Amino acid sequence: MHKLIQPLYSKQVVANRIERLAEELNKKYEGEKNVHLVVTLNGAFIFAADLIRMLKFPITLCFAGSVTSKVQTVADTRINADALPKSFGKEPVLILEDIIDSGKTIGTLREMVADRFAGSIEIVALIKRQHCKVAPDYACFTVPEGMFLVGYGLDLENRYRELPGIFTIDCTMDKSAGVC
């Protein structure tokens, strides 16, 4: 399989967008006693870490993608319901997602969070696909359908997450591998 990686958004462009996002969130949630942040799946960890360090309001953090024996599976979506609080106590919840492709993960997670007494729910995405009908409340970037991305937490077979920016990867399909 031949892979060609090209830069799409540099480390600095990503950092600038996340800083602007943090400023928006800080204005909106200023004065809140607590805001719950729910980080989805593995790819969102770098985005979440960088964003969280810029937030100036109190947060409670949980990760919904911890895989255990009690995982709710919807298609490819794996959410550990036990990782979420039993109740959000009518406090605001921000769901942090790396990329919204089909919206299945976000839809499932939004329902789970709503069932646990969230005061409000907003979706914060690093990247949104243009074709996706699920619109996040906040998104740093929008990309076209069919563009495969790696870096800044995004991966191909658990590789390339460490790249400092966001890159496109051109995969010549290896039919036996079933990737890209």
Please give a structural write-up.
The structure is a single chain. Helix 1 packs across helix 2. The protein has a 5-stranded parallel beta sheet with strand order 3-2-6-7-8. Strands 1-10-9 form a 3-stranded antiparallel beta sheet. Strands 4-5 form a two-stranded antiparallel sheet. The chain is built from 3 helices and 10 strands. The longest helix has 19 residues, at 11-29. The protein is 21% helix and 32% strand. The protein has one domain (11-142): Rossmann fold (3-Layer(aba) Sandwich), CATH 3.40.50. The protein is α/β, with parallel strands linked by helices and 180 residues long. It has helices at 11-29, 45-52, 104-114; strands spanning 3-9, 35-39, 59-63, 71-74, 77-80, 92-100, 120-129, 138-143, 149-150, 166-171.
Short description:
A five-stranded parallel sheet has the order 3-2-6-7-8. Helix 1 crosses helix 2 (45-52).
Layout of helices and strands:
Elements: E1 3-9, H1 11-29, E2 35-39, H2 45-52, E3 59-63, E4 71-74, E5 77-80, E6 92-100, H3 104-114, E7 120-129, E8 138-143, E9 149-150, E10 166-171
Parallel strand pairs: 2-3, 2-6, 6-7, 7-8
Antiparallel strand pairs: 1-10, 4-5, 9-10
Helix pairs in contact: 1-2
Computed Rg = 16 Å
- Report the count of strand segments: 10
Structural class: alpha/beta
Share of residues in strands: 25-35%
CATH fold label:
Rossmann fold
CATH structural architecture: 3-Layer(aba) Sandwich
Number of domains: 1
* CATH class descriptor: Alpha Beta
Helix tally equals 3
Helical proportion?
10-25%
